[in-house]
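Form 7-S
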Amino acid sequence: MLNLELPHEIAKTWDLKLQNYPITNLQIPQMIPRHFFIALSVLLAAVLGMSIYVWRMRGRAAATPAPSADSRPVVAPIAGNTERVTLVVAYDDIGILRAQAAQIPMPSVRQQRAEEVLRALIALYLDKSSPHPLPPGSDIRSVYLVDPGLAVIDVNAALADGHRSGVLAEELTVASLVQTLSANIPGILKVKILVEGKQRETLAGHADLSNFFDVSAVNQLASQLESTQ
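Output:
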């Protein structure tokens, strides 16, 4: 093995150096001030409190149900002057139809005018205070004016599939659509109702949709309903 002992002269020299620098002269760092620990504790408590607050807020946000959205398709705003129209409104509580005036933007094209006046009627029925509630999302897909005397109303599936079943409720809906259309579009004599562009036997089990509705016959039915009240 190698001899790692220092020579006597070198060892003596190091002993003298250590004697000149006693251990009491060494600089030892002072203890950390007490106020530093207090400030650090306050900071940690604040961080912990903020973490708990954020966690609770996330839990509340996750538990809050999202507002129901209108499922009707988005329709571009109609360009046109506001006009006075007549909406023939159904009232379930007394089982009759009543004409009601409304101010809505109306385009110049005849087909678009027919669509807008019926959409105004549907919007009234979708209101919370509606006298004749329709299912959420109900809408008019289109109105086709096949010839000067014939109109085809195409409603969406939400209106038909969610409609209340019952003779009076269904007949009021049909009569309201037919009379509102004929009251605002001159020359309409017959009306056909489709659902999503297809023929349907009944609206919700009672009102027959397989045939054309004669406007004069619907007007007579509305008069009969009023006379029975």
